[in-house]
Design goal:
The chain is α/β, with parallel strands linked by helices and 215 residues long. The chain is built from seven helices and eleven strands. It has a five-stranded parallel sheet with strand order 2-1-3-4-5, with helices on both faces. It has a four-stranded antiparallel sheet with strand order 6-7-8-9, covered by helices on one side. The protein has a two-stranded antiparallel sheet with strand order 10-11. Strand 10 and strand 11 form a beta hairpin. The N and C termini lie far apart (46 Å).
């Protein structure tokens, strides 16, 4: 049965557009193409997009990076990407990443059918509405930042390894560097902690991973 998801693919190289569009369409996705940021914004306004490959939006973002150095990967995450793929890459890897993020977006939180907010002290997470408040002030989170916060906050005191978080947030840890989780955690702390350098909510368990402050 054809997949009804629509993917906005943004890249200025025609060869990349052709290379990536064909396997996605073969998998049943609708691919909307754009060559630059301005065209991407126009197409984004015109289409109901479910996932973006390289751009900025409130839907999951996969960034295509030109090199494999750690700096490039971290920069992609710093710019708001939820995942990254380093060129050159295999079509199998690309399709796997797309499927994983679309699965997460289709069932975007791990709190089941819970309707009541998650409240942890001064932190309030409205899961169905995907909104977060800290000390009464709204906080804007990326797709992955929100997912990570829900995972940690709904299980206070439980330690999650980096690999655990990759599995839960991205549907797998294959092809991924576990320490990119550290970048997302740092961003979260900058947005919700009083003092990100001395966190009180998201705690580091040295050598083990992260946990939300026990109740």
């Amino acid at each position: 049965m054809p997949n009804s998801s629509t993917i906005l693919l943004v890249d200025d190289e025609d060869s990349i557009q052709t290379l990536l569009t064909y396997p996605l369409e073969r998998d049943g996705y609708t691919v909307v193409q754009a060559r630059d940021g301005d065209e991407a914004l126009r197409r984004f306004d015109e289409e109901a997009v479910d996932l973006v490959v390289r751009s900025q939006s409130n839907v999951p973002i996969i960034m295509l990076t030109a090199r494999g150095e750690e700096l490039d990967k971290v920069l992609g995450l710093e710019l708001g990407a939820d995942d990254y793929i380093t060129k050159p890459f295999s079509i199998r890897e690309f399709r796997s990443r797309v499927r994983a993020l679309l699965r997460r977006a289709a069932s975007p939180h791990l709190a089941g059918d819970r309707e009541e907010p998650i409240e942890r002290g001064e932190l309030r997470i409205d899961v169905p509405r995907r909104t977060v408040e800290i000390r009464g002030q709204p906080v804007q989170l990326t797709f992955i930042e929100f997912e990570m916060l829900v995972v940690l906050a709904q299980s206070p005191g439980v330690v999650f390894s980096r690999r655990d978080l990759l599995e839960r947030l991205r549907g797998g840890a294959d092809y991924r560097e576990p320490r990119t989780i550290d970048v997302h955690v740092r961003h979260l702390r900058e947005k919700i902690e009083r003092d990100p350098s001395n966190p009180e909510l998201i705690l580091t368990m040295r050598g083990a991973g992260y946990r939300f402050r026990p109740e």
